[in-house]
Structure formats: C-alpha cells, structure tokens
Write a structure and sequence with these properties.
The chain is an alpha+beta fold. It has one domain. Strands 1, 2, 3, 4, 5 and 6 form a six-stranded mixed β-sheet that branches. The protein is globular and about 50 Å long.
Length: 159
C-alpha cells in the first residue's frame, strides 16, 4: 500500500485512478519542481489514440506500458518510445493533481499511440510528455519507488 492505494506495476492501480485521492508528497525539492513544471504544461495534455499493435511473436502486456514501449521501439518497426504522465485533476475536488507515469509510442507519421492493453472499465486520461531523457525519466521513477516502495505517481499541490 502506498498513500492508501494498492499499486500494480508501473501503469494502473487496482482500483480506478479517480478513486485514489491521497496526496503523496514528492520525495525531493527537485521532483516537486518537476511536478510544478508538469502542471505548468497541462495545456499540452492530449488524449492519446488507443491502438492494437502486435507483432508476429509478441503482443503488449497489460500494466507494462514502459516495457511494451521499449520492446516495440527495439523491434525497429518505425516506433519510438515516448515517456510521460497521465494527468488526473479529480475534477477539482482535491487540492492536488496527480501525474501517473505512462509510456506510449510514436509511429513514423508522428502520431502518439497508446497500445498497452487497459483493464476493463479503465478511464481514458490525458497524457503529457515527460520532456526528460530516458535516464532522467527512469531516475524520477526510481526516486518515487525508493520513497514510497511501489508507486508511479507524482503529485502537485494546486492550493
């Protein structure tokens, strides 16, 4: 349990994201500043088209968005991994917003595609690119993991 929420690996909670309203303080000033910068960029958020992508001997695995994106990029079919965050504002009913780590891919035409299978009933949340290198993004996720034990959430106080 992290911040009162049971977490599944790197993408989705065991209960709907909209029901998890416990604030998790960023583990460092650097991450708090990064959360602030994400919040300043919410105008860039977009709903990513969901797509079914599978190759001859591989198909994406639910709750493994980061691995799925990196594997698809490695296959060399013209896809590149794009790391970022799902944006949850809880319809203004909390004093914080939440960014949940998520990865998608960009195709050769420049379209972002979310191809990781979603659990039945999972809402479609807007996405904001991380604007970090792969190693910087991984460092953020590792810092969150170190602080909370098993989370992929970065929260920002809005009030």
């Amino acid at each position: 349990m992290v911040c009162g929420v049971k977490i599944q690996f790197m993408t989705l909670f065991s209960t709907p994201l909209s029901q998890n309203r416990h604030y998790c303080k960023p583990p460092s000033r650097k991450l708090a500043k990064y959360a602030e910068s994400l919040y300043a960029r919410i105008g860039e958020r977009q709903y990513i088209k969901r797509a079914m992508i599978q190759l001859d001997d591989w198909q994406p695995v639910q709750n493994q968005c980061h691995a799925n994106a990196m594997i698809l990029e490695t296959y060399g079919e013209g896809f590149s991994a794009v790391h970022g965050w799902l944006y949850l504002d809880y319809a203004g009913q909390t004093d914080f917003v939440r960014f949940v780590a998520h990865s998608v891919v960009k195709n050769q035409q420049g379209d972002l595609l979310d191809f990781t299978p979603a659990a039945t009933g999972t809402a479609h949340y807007p996405f904001i690119t991380a604007a970090l290198s792969n190693s910087e993004y991984e460092a953020v996720l590792n810092a969150l993991l170190k602080k909370y034990g098993a989370t992929n959430c970065l929260d920002y106080l809005t009030k």
